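Progress narrative, Year 2. Work on Centrosomal protein 20 from Mytilus edulis advanced from sequence curation to structure prediction during this period.
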Amino acid sequence: MSSTHELKDVIKDTLENKGTLGQIKARIRAEVFNALNDESENKPQLSNENLIINELIREYLDFNKLRYSSSVLVAESGQPNVPLDRGFLSRELNIREDRNSSSVPLLYGLVSTYLKENRKPTGREASPQRNQGPGRGAFLEQLRQDLGQREGEDAVIIKR
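Result:
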């Protein structure tokens, strides 16, 4: 009995070290979700904001090779199966990209730009403190406001 248990542990450790175990678990979750997903259930129509936010998340998931998570997002949210054009997203979010930024998801650039613009100078370059704003959720609230107030403002330039 001990040898079976040891074999099981060795296989589990090997799969974890290769990163395969997480992929297998994600695929099982995605397949279970697909089996349980009721295709006849009507999804609510996505607002333009949710469509863009979901697409930013999908681009991030796909970039990080989280394909099963991406497929569940698309299925649950009602996001179109075909990804939105990156150029369209850039125009909608008023983002100008450079050569380096076009190789990473737009979400990375948005977060990076936001954090750079909202840091307080501390005199120590190595560990700048962030402006925490009025409380929890301040980042998302500010981002929502920034996206809503983009008309007439300068474009966000994403640089890495």
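The first strand starts at residue 95 and ends at 97. Residues 125-136, 149-154 have pLDDT under 50 and may be disordered.
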